[in-house]
Every structure is written in structure tokens, then in C-alpha cells.
Design a protein that fits this description.
A hairpin with a 5-residue loop joins strand 4 and strand 5. By secondary structure, this protein is of the alpha+beta class. It has a 7-stranded antiparallel beta sheet, with helices on one face. A 4-stranded mixed beta sheet has the order 3-2-1-7, with no helix packed on it. The two termini are 67 Å apart. Helix content is 20%, strand content 22%.
């Protein structure tokens, strides 16, 4: 409020000086000399007004909800949402949120758990190689059911074998090397030497995991 008080004081002082000056002009006339009737007092120029405020700078756009929420991600063309096979592991991890985990025990792998514990998303590079290009991105069911990422055809965790085959009639049935389950493998020209895999546990008829991978088969345990 200091600036308001200063402004008021200056206004009062200016008014006092103006009145005094006018009074001095009135008493300064010689006796007998009437003021010239043609002379009139006119108001001075209007005080300058404050300049208009500049327009506010546009705010930064909000965070992309689709990037922050893996349940809205799409699985296709060698990628799961913003995570793509072949991209640098560290650069990708740096662009994801703080909810993603990466520790010294599995430094070559990063993962995210759904808040309700229903599914897991992970990606990794080849720990035995010097390069840190992502070789696989996977989505795994860890509860009874999950919304999770899906393909453009709506296929995802919990989809039946028939639903996968209806969406991808060229999918090949491939037995898993370890674990006794099997995969429906969809060749993907956008994944170098890799494919889109839908995993079925032994005796199961619904998708328990899916992956886009540059390997011949998704890793049984990416972090052993």
C-alpha cells in the first residue's frame, strides 16, 4: 500500500502548489489593473495514464494424459505407447514419469506397475551388448483382469485366442521354449527381425502377456 499513499501525497502537494501559484498570480497584479477579460485559465494536459498491461504469456500445454497413463497406450508397429524397439533405453526412461522403476540389480530393465496391481509394463536392452537400444517391450497380467494397453484392433490382456486370430488371421502358433505355454506370433515389418507376440500360459485360452520384440521369442525372465 506504500505506493498508494505516495501517489495521494503527491496529488495533494501538487494541488497545493497549483492553488498557491494561482493565488500569486492574482495578488501579483498592480492595483487598478483588472485582469484581461480575454485571458482564461485552461486546464493543463491530462495526466498520462498507465500503459495497458501486456497480454499474459500463454501457459505451457498440459502434460499428455495418454503418455502418462499406460492403460491408454496402443501396441503396434514395434512399440507400446511411447516405448519403441530400437530406441535408446536411457533416453526413453528419462522421458517417462517418476513411477517407472530402474535399479542396479536390473540396470538394463525398467518397469511400471499399474496402481491396482493388475498388470506390469516393462522394457529392456541386451545386458550382454555394449549398445543400449531397446530390444523388447512387454505387458504382463499380474492380477485377475486388466485394462492395459491394446492393439489397434482392441486385442490385449484377457483377449481370447479366437479374438487374436480374428484380428490377426496370419498369426502363427509357436510353442514357448520355456514354461510350457505358447505364443501367437504376428510378423511385424517395423520390428527388425522381430514380431508382436501374444502369450498363452499352458492350458489357458486368454492372453496373459504380450510383447513387441526384436528377439526370436520374448524373454522368459528379463531380469533373473
Amino acid at each position: 500500500m506504500t505506493w498508494q499513499r505516495t501517489k495521494t501525497a503527491v496529488g495533494i502537494l501538487s494541488g497545493t502548489i497549483l492553488v498557491g501559484a494561482l493565488a500569486g498570480c492574482a495578488t501579483g497584479t498592480t492595483s487598478g489593473d483588472a485582469p484581461d477579460p480575454e485571458v482564461t485559465l485552461t486546464a493543463g494536459p491530462a495526466p498520462a495514464t498507465d500503459s495497458p498491461m501486456p497480454p499474459a504469456e500463454p501457459s505451457d500445454p498440459p502434460d499428455d494424459d495418454e503418455t502418462a497413463d499406460p492403460s491408454m497406450w496402443e501396441v503396434d508397429d514395434g512399440e507400446v505407447g511411447p516405448i519403441e524397439v530400437g530406441d535408446d533405453f536411457r533416453d526413453t526412461l528419462a522421458e517417462l514419469g517418476d513411477d517407472w522403476q530402474n535399479d542396479e540389480q536390473c540396470a538394463y530393465m525398467a518397469w511400471w506397475n499399474a496402481p491396482d496391481g493388475s498388470y506390469l509394463v516393462s522394457f529392456h536392452h541386451d545386458d550382454a551388448a555394449d549398445e543400449t537400444g531397446i530390444i523388447e517391450v512387454s505387458v504382463e497380467l499380474t492380477g485377475d483382469a486388466a485394462d492395459g494397453p491394446r492393439t489397434e484392433h482392441g486385442v490385449g490382456l484377457g483377449s481370447t485366442r479366437d479374438e487374436v486370430m480374428a484380428a490377426y488371421p496370419d498369426a502363427m502358433d509357436v510353442p514357448a521354449t520355456i514354461g510350457g505355454g505358447s505364443y501367437l506370433k504376428v510378423a511385424d515389418d517395423d520390428v527388425d527381425d522381430g514380431a508382436l507376440f501374444f502369450e498363452f500360459a499352458e492350458g489357458a485360452d486368454t492372453v496373459g502377456a504380450m510383447a513387441v520384440s526384436a528377439a526370436d521369442e520374448p524373454a522368459y525372465e528379463a531380469c533373473a
